[in-house]
Amino acid sequence: MRTDGEVELTPCPHGPLLVRGATVVRDRDGRAHPVTRPVVAVCLCEKSQRLPWCDGTHKVIPR
């Protein structure tokens, strides 16, 4: 549970990292990506066509 101003991170098994309460997500190169939704899914497989956001590609990658 989070309180105002805190960011909550929830890893999804074999999927993205759900981020709640953030205003910005920085990618691996340090570029800032504004967050405009209450919850965003950040790609952990690094195969998304929309990095740093998850596009569901992890679902078709063999484990």
Automatic annotation (TrEMBL):
Transmembrane segments: none annotated. GO terms for cellular component: cytoplasm. Keywords: 2Fe-2S, Iron, Iron-sulfur, Metal-binding. InterPro entries: FeS-contain_CDGSH-typ, MitoNEET_CISD. Gene3D superfamilies: CDGSH iron-sulfur domain, mitoNEET-type. The keyword Iron applies. This is CDGSH iron-sulfur domain-containing protein.
